Phosphopantetheine adenylyltransferase (Oceanobacillus piezotolerans), 161 residues
Amino acid sequence: MGKLAICPGSFDPITNGHLDIITRASKIFDRVIVAVFNNQAKSPLFTVEERMRLLEEATSDLPNITVDSSDHLLMDYAKEQNADAVVRGLRAISDFEYEMQITSMNRKLNPEIETLFMMTNNQYSFLSSSMVKEIAKYNGDISGLVPDTVRAELKRKFNYL
């Protein structure tokens, strides 16, 4: 069966920073599930189904990647999937404190599943889905920040076709 990791996120939308972490995780683990979770604190631009489709398109060249979604707790989902680890990306030191709190709680919920952090490549350290949506909303240039299919979808969402 091999080692399985979960790359969780809201992916609203997927950015090249997300894709970098997913690609690197796919080289370390035998299988990686990219799981779309709905963050109730956020108002998503894309539906879960749209985010899953964009993720599938962006990762189609990675044979050991599966895209899924869940509305369960991450640790419950990871246990259901028999995952060995959760992979999270860190952009900056400001991410660390937030991620540390989540990881500590996740460890309490399920100490069997490890959380691994990957630092994003420097070229993506400033990048966030929120920032991309804000730029796209005003028809700014987001090339190089998101996969081409995402750029086209954002233009469609904001009526810039």
Observations:
- The mean pLDDT is 93.
- Residues 4-158 form a domain with the Rossmann fold fold (CATH 3.40.50.620).
- The chain has one domain: 4-158.
